[in-house]
């Protein structure tokens, strides 16, 4: 799904990283300022939570729609619109004079972030090719994302204490301006990539279903899991999501193409991130509470205490990037999840009379390195083998899985901690509740590692087909059957060649038994226009061709291909036993 545009990859990476830093910062920066916001605007205690929940609800509810909109209307366009809207909403929140104004601004921020996050990730995955380049780019993006979350707690404490709570909102405005400047400097206009009419019904069902799911979960702080309110909300969400799946199965241009999950990389990565986010969000939440409620650390000190965590995440992304040069994302995800599990379980052993140095610093470093090793690889895995016109879709699904997993995990473990603590409110009782929940959070990371081991493809089981760039490699087809590919040259006898041209006027799914050329031949498949996904036996994910690329498919291995209309392709076949089988060893397979 790598696309070639007249672009500056560094500017794309910088713009996406700055935008993700802003999104992560905003999710954390407000929490510390809640007491000051309550006093300044006169929030009722029972309503103060909506400052956080309005954002989470809008963000989670609109992520799938934001991802698909990026495909339909252009990733750069949606990225810019989302950034501008986020800046306006932040300014409106900073000047809010009443509680409802701030809550409305936070909801608007959530909707804007649901456009920025998947569009930014899709820009990255379509700018940097699968493999080393993409893993490195996602490593930078992930490190900045983690730094935004960790620094958000510190910035919230410092801003609310020394500059006033309004600056926790207004701080986003200059960040937006920097991101927009980077977009103007080197992010090209990509234009719409999706085909067909927008899936309006699917968008409505998904937004309402996911929104109600997030709402039902985050409101368990007021209504018990078994209360009629919670059961009704979650039941309605389940019905809407079931209807959404039924609609997507029949839609011509679905919001989420269900066939996407036949790709084991996509399925495994999303289940992994759901479980890992449930553990990570919970750990972050309970460790913050432990430092403030048990160790009695102030807001600014608590924020500063997360700086080692941020540095550990950066270290983890560096390790994952280096591993990605020679290993698949699966390796880093397994190691990272196990390290994060060990660090989170270590947190669970903290004591009521402990200290930052003895109970927080060590597990912070171990868990953060593990989390850092997961962030970039899971994003790379979730977009492996995904067509460029579905990059936003895949990014939206990944972000939704992370948000829903984090919300459900944190709400469920908060209930577990409250049940363990009971009516007691002393440090010892609170510590017991936090510790139990952190042990369970560690178990969630173990479950994520098991998913990576059992679901994600292994290198030995996956056939890798490298694409040849027709434009830069200079492929030429001669009348006598010779094909030149850059400095490489393939020669075959004239009788051994068979050339066929195809044009797909409608989307097509062609299987081997319908193919006009014998499947026991070796073929050079060249895509001239349109888009093609090519499946071979033994491969867990398709090879995606974009215009100007080709792939050599060994004989007796290919299974089927999917063509997006309109598409033109040229297939050059060399029958078994011809001289093509003696080609240079360096030719891409």
Structure summarized in a few sentences:
With 589 residues, the protein is of the alpha+beta class. The protein is 61% helix and 11% strand.
Description:
The strands form two sheets. Strands 1, 5, 6, 7, 8, 9 and 10 form a seven-stranded antiparallel β-sheet that branches. A three-stranded antiparallel β-sheet has the order 2-3-4, with no helix packed on it. The model is unreliable at about 1-5, about 460-495, about 510-520 and about 575-589 (pLDDT under 50). About 60% of the residues lie in helices and about 10% in strands. It folds into three domains: about 10-185 and about 255-420 and about 430-460, MFS general substrate transporter like domains (Growth Hormone, Chain: A, Up-down Bundle); about 200-250, no CATH class; about 465-580, Jelly Rolls (Sandwich). With about 600 residues, it is α+β, with helices and mostly antiparallel strands. The two termini are about 20 Å apart.
